[in-house]
Amino acid sequence: MTIVVKIGGEILEGAAIDPIAADIAALAARGERIAMVHGGGPQATAMQQRLGIESKVVAGRRFTDEATLEVMKMVVGGRLNINLCAALLAAGANPIGLHGASSLAVKARKRTPAVVSGGGLEPIDFGLVGDVAGFNEALLTTLLDAGYIPVIACLGAAADGTVLNINADIIANQLAAVLAADHLVLVTGARGVLRDLADPESRIDRLSPAQARATIADGTVQGGMIPKLDETILALETGRVGCVHVVGGLQTGELLREIDEPGSVGTALANQSASGQT
């Protein structure tokens, strides 16, 4: 079984990562092939503030100028990637830290201005932001087959060495499709997709792509969850991803349980009709 796990930056501080690392190690120990992708938006924003660099987010997506890209390299490609690998190593796993400039592990091209969900009717130019142009599949497959866990920072690169910032959800969703992942797990700050952001008990346990679109259209889903679900829907529509899980606030054993029992801990999205919503 192949599993792609995306970790949001809000999870990559303190003890929050420890139960996740323990479950990742347990999954690897039972023979699952696991690749990880991580972001680092909150930490990058905090570093920008310390350096006096203005942070700009439009429709839940970061605008990236040259100064912001340097911060992303330092924070996401450096400290956070190292710390996540260290947590996995301590849990007994075998992580390998990567980014786009690691032999084009994530191939990128600069994004052209486009209209995006939640961003109005005019095309938006996000600066030094990339779209995924592919992956070094030979490298990733070699690592996965040998029992290593690729841990990929959300930075892509072009063949000429140009580094571009890419939303970690985009990388994770497209990587899951390329690897024909049985499960894609998006670990966030929320327990799942909520009907009421103020009520953590309003978690929706299962959604189809059509139902996910409806939660965006009717305003149930807002902010950063909009692009997350947009990319998730695209991944499911490739027909190459089995199930996508949106989870958060995980305790030890809960990631394992969500994989084995989709929708038991977070929100499970799959092509078949959703049922048993809470």
CATH class: Alpha Beta
User: Care to count the β-strands?
Assistant: 14
Indicate the proportion of strand residues.
15-25%
CATH architecture: 3-Layer(aba) Sandwich
Question: What would you say this structure looks like, in words?
Answer:
The structure is a single chain. This protein has 278 residues and is of the alpha/beta class. The chain has a single domain (2-269), classed as Carbamate kinase (3-Layer(aba) Sandwich). 36% of the residues lie in helices and 21% in strands. The chain has eight helices and 14 strands. The strands form four sheets. Strands 5-8-2-1-11-13-14-12 form an eight-stranded mixed β-sheet, with helices on both faces. Strands 3-4 form a two-stranded antiparallel ribbon. The radius of gyration is 17 Å and the shape is globular. The two termini are 28 Å apart.
What key phrases describe this protein's structure?
278 residues, alpha/beta, Carbamate kinase, two-stranded antiparallel ribbon, 14 strands, globular, disordered C terminus
Topology:
Blueprint: E1 2-7, H1 17-29, E2 33-38, H2 41-51, E3 57-58, E4 61-62, H3 66-91, E5 95-98, E6 106-110, E7 130-135, H4 137-145, E8 149-153, E9 155-157, E10 163-165, H5 168-178, E11 183-188, E12 206-207, H6 209-217, H7 225-237, E13 243-248, H8 254-260, E14 267-269
Parallel strand pairs: 1-2, 1-11, 2-8, 5-8, 11-13, 12-14
Antiparallel strand pairs: 3-4, 6-7, 9-10, 13-14
Helix pairs in contact: 1-3, 2-3, 5-7, 6-7
Structure described in brief:
With 278 residues, this protein is of the alpha/beta class. It is built from 8 helices and 14 strands. The protein has helices at residues 17-29, 41-51, 66-91, 137-145, 168-178, 209-217, 225-237, 254-260; strands spanning 2-7, 33-38, 57-58, 61-62, 95-98, 106-110, 130-135, 149-153, 155-157, 163-165, 183-188, 206-207, 243-248, 267-269.
